Amino acid sequence: MTFVEFIITYYPRFLSGTIVTIEQFVLASALCIVLALFAGLMKLSPRTSVRACATVYIEIFRGTSLLVQLYWIFFVLPLFGITLDKFTAGVVAVGLNVGAYGAELVRGGVLSVPTGQWEAAVSINMSPGKRMSRIILPQALVNMLPAWGNLLIELLKGTALVATIAVADLTFEARQINYSTFMSAQSFGSALIIYYILARCLLTPLMRRLEKIMARQIGRE
Fold first, then answer.
1. What pLDDT does 178 receive?
2. What per-residue confidence (pLDDT) applies to 96?
3. What is the Cα Rg of the chain in Å?
4. Residue 183 · residue 1 · CB < 8 Å
5. Which helix (DSSP H) or strand (DSSP E) does residue 204 occupy?
6. CA 116, 121, 125 angle in degrees (round to 5)?
7. What are the coiled-coil residue ranges (predicted)?
8. Integer distance in angstroms from the first to the last C-alpha of the chain?
9. 49 exposed, middle or buried (CB, 10 Å; 0-12, 13-18, 19+)?
10. Structural element, H or E, at residue 42
11. Which pLDDT tens digit goes with each residue over 68-105?
């Protein structure tokens, strides 16, 4: 069987797996961004207890394996009365893990805003909430976006691990096709190409476009 014949035969399964991978990516990214924003801002809190909570979350999920975290959420949490279906467990595990890395990007991005911007916002009596949302975060976001692009690519690749708990994503389908056909090069080569297209041909241009839009919004272009 040629590679073209292989693709024609199995493209429906690769397509369904790709759709599941995209769903995992979108949902895990949303969770990751929310967690990163809250944890990153909590790390900057003047309250020790708030900073401590954020630090515990960040250190645990940055310091342990994503695969082990995935197994804990799916296999161990039910022992404590918390049961998640395999799709949700995958989203939660990947989102929590990458969110911990994103929190440090948020913290660094906020700290990268020039001190004069903080002082100007204080001088016109802006409340802390308005100061952060209207002055600091828009500028911090522009500084963070290049690093976030790389992080989201890592998140996309991290979703491949959900195949280990039988989520029918792209990696799972490639593995199942390989089991039935023993055509390893074609099976995993197809998956490799699809992951590359998603990361480099779709996600990377999107993030670069977003960088330009945000830079224009705050007058850097």
1. 94
2. 97
3. 21
4. yes
5. helix 204-217
6. 140
7. none
8. 53
9. exposed
10. helix 3-43
11. 999 999 999 999 999 999 999 999 999 999 999 999 99
In the chain, domain spans? 3-218
d(CA 143, CA 113): 8
Q: Which is higher by pLDDT, 136 or 29?
A: 29
Pick the CATH number of 3-218 from 3.30.230.10, 2.60.120.1440, 1.10.3720.10, 1.10.10.10: 1.10.3720.10
Q: Which residue has tokens 């918390």?
A: 82
CB-based contacts of 88, cutoff 8 Å, min separation 6: none
Q: For the CA atoms of 59, 140, 112, 102, what is the dihedral angle to 10 degrees?
A: 20
pLDDT bracket for residue 153 (50, 70, 90): very high
